[in-house]
Structures are given as structure tokens and as C-alpha cells.
Amino acid sequence: VDSAVDLDEGGDEATSRSPSTLPAFLQSLVGKPRAQTLPPEVYQGIFKRIGLGDHKAVLGMVIAKIVHNLRAWGDDHEVIRRTLVLLATLVQGGVGSPAGPMLLQLDATQELLRQHTGAALPFVEVPGNERFRTTLHLTLCQMLLMSPDDSEASGAFQGFMRPLLEALRSLHDADARGELFTDANRRALIGVCRYPPARARA
């Protein structure tokens, strides 16, 4: 996700989206491991031995932590920036092996796709976080568009669009009542218009 690269203004390798900078254990889960890393089976054996479960369970924990950061640290720009870069890096996966389809199988990812508005993720409404909000939505759109024919992606896309459709219906109803021109509706309309068009990522 290009905007995730832009977020990493300091060039900090620990937060770059490049798959080669993922921690070795994450790289082994979401893509082809680098030559100098241990085989995926080694990490998966370690995870099971310490009670973390299989690779999907571990990825689910990582996504759950990402969601927690987005919910609890909305006013800390550095935490949000690093969290979004990590999410974009996970979606990119390994070289030639995007992890989006795998992430779509996780309950935590499905929840994030269904609940990405200010009600669930307060950081998107914090002043100064507009760029972070756009990055989140670009990353989610990219994940959905990696496998457009996949049933998981199809169902997830419908869930992703539901909050937007609800916002538009609410604006339509407000207009019918002659109550469209309020600050709350203005913010809602701006929020909908900030979502990246799907065709831009196709």
C-alpha cells in the first residue's frame, strides 16, 4: 500500500511495509521465508509447544492486537502509524505471495472489515488522523481486491460496504426530513467521500 510507505517517513526499517523487513516468524507465516530464516514448520512447532496454536491462530492474535491499538491508542499518532504500517505489511505478505487471502479467513480480520467506522475505531475521528484513516481503508480495499473471485473476499466486501451504505441511507432519510444540513451529517458525508474508490485499486 503506497500510503503506508509514505507513513514511514523516517525510513525506520522496523516499520517499513517491505515483506523483507517483517520479523522472521511473521514472514514464515504469511509468505515464502527468506533463505536465512528458519523453515515455517520450526516456528509453527514453537507456537504449538508454548500453547499459541497453529499459524492462523498466531496471525489472529496479531490482527487482534492491531485492532486493539486502533481502538485504544487513537490519539497517539506514532502508535497508529506503526500499527497501520504493520497491517499493510501483513497484507502484502511475502514476495510473490500476498497474504490477503489468508488474512480474510481470520475472524479478527472479518470483524475489522465490518467495523471500520468511528463508532468501532475512534481514531478515524481524531483531528489530524485523516491520513491514517485513508491508509487503513486503502489497506482493507487492497486485501479485498487481491482475490475478487474468492467467496471469503466476496462476503467480506459486502460487510465492508455495509457501514457506508448505512451512512448514505441515514443521509437520505435526513434529507427527506429536511434535516440534512447539520454538522453531524456534514461529517458523515465527508467520511463517506474519503473512502478510496475500489476501481483505483483494481
TrEMBL record:
<dbReference type="GO" id="GO:0005737">
    <property type="term" value="C:cytoplasm"/>
</dbReference>
<dbReference type="InterPro" id="IPR044189">
    <property type="entry name" value="XPO4/7-like"/>
</dbReference>
<keyword id="KW-0813">Transport</keyword>
<dbReference type="InterPro" id="IPR057947">
    <property type="entry name" value="TPR_XPO7/RBP17"/>
</dbReference>
<keyword id="KW-0963">Cytoplasm</keyword>
<dbReference type="GO" id="GO:0006611">
    <property type="term" value="P:protein export from nucleus"/>
</dbReference>
<keyword id="KW-0653">Protein transport</keyword>
<dbReference type="Pfam" id="PF25795">
    <property type="entry name" value="TPR_XPO7"/>
</dbReference>
<feature type="domain" description="Exportin-7/Ran-binding protein 17 TPR repeats">
    <location>
        <begin position="40"/>
        <end position="130"/>
    </location>
</feature>
<comment type="similarity">
    <text>Belongs to the exportin family.</text>
</comment>
<dbReference type="GO" id="GO:0005643">
    <property type="term" value="C:nuclear pore"/>
</dbReference>
<keyword id="KW-0539">Nucleus</keyword>
<dbReference type="GO" id="GO:0005049">
    <property type="term" value="F:nuclear export signal receptor activity"/>
</dbReference>
<protein>
    <recommendedName>
        <fullName>Exportin-7/Ran-binding protein 17 TPR repeats domain-containing protein</fullName>
    </recommendedName>
</protein>
